[in-house]
Design brief:
The chain has no helices and eleven strands. It is mainly beta and 115 residues long. Strands 2, 4, 5, 6, 9, 10 and 11 form a seven-stranded mixed sheet that branches. Strands 1-3-8-7 form a four-stranded antiparallel sheet, with no helix packed on it. The chain is globular, with a radius of gyration of 13 Å. The protein starts with a strand and ends with a strand. The relative contact order is 0.32.
Length: 115
Amino acid sequence: VQVVESGGGLVQHGGSLRLSCATSGFTFSNYAMSWHRQAPGKEREMVAHIINTGSKTMYADSVKGRFTISRDNRKNTVYLQMNNLNPEDTAVYYCFARLPGPGYWGQGTQVTVSS
């Protein structure tokens, strides 16, 4: 199983980024996926979740209305569109494949929002 994030970077307050998470080694369309983030000195938190079909999503209150999770089951990829970013969104963002057992984490991608 491979879970590989990309798309992070440095962006100004109010800007946008789109993260991608490419996967392989499992039947992507069978499993829910989620995005999490961890800021320095803080615990990792879930920011968005999407079920296997893509028909249902969930968001942390802190990102509702600004972030959108989506997936392309033909490309085995999940996305996180992040708009109106603010410095509090600065963190390492991780993709998580919700397979049976402990699941699989990607290596993370850094998002830094300047004020």
